[in-house]
Amino acid sequence: MDRETLNEMVKLKFGARKAGGPEVDLVKLAADASYAHEIFSAIENLPDESLVMLAMTLRDKFGLLSAMPQTPASPPPTLAAAEKVTEPEARYMSGARS
User: What are the sequence ranges of the domains in the chain?
Assistant: First the structure.
């Protein structure tokens, strides 16, 4: 981890403490993605714009920003579309007729 990221983590810890936010464990923040997500979410709800920006920056550096779910490009096929019967199948009457 580079020095700039470490400095940002320390700023986040002390800024969150001053703003009345959650207590941040820096080692756990760097090692545990679910803890980091929880802490970043709590800090992003604080009224301090600089802390929110810092949390988003760190979230991006930790690779957690790109892991957020994205909307699918096309909706999944519905059951009604899967059950739609084509014309030749609709005329099939179980066996050959003479």
Answer: 3-61
Closest by Cα among 33, 32, 53 to 44: 53
Closest alpha carbon to 27 in 41, 13, 16: 13
| Predicted TM-score of the model (pTM) | 0.65
Cβ neighbours of 66 (radius 10 Å): 8
Would you write out the chain's pLDDT as a tens digit for each of its 98 residues? 899 999 999 999 999 999 999 999 999 999 999 999 999 999 999 999 999 999 999 999 999 887 555 555 555 555 555 555 555 555 656 666 65
- Helix, strand or coil, per DSSP, at residue 58: helix
C-beta neighbour count of 88 within 10 angstroms: 7
Which DSSP symbol is given to 95? S
The tokens for 12 are 């986040």
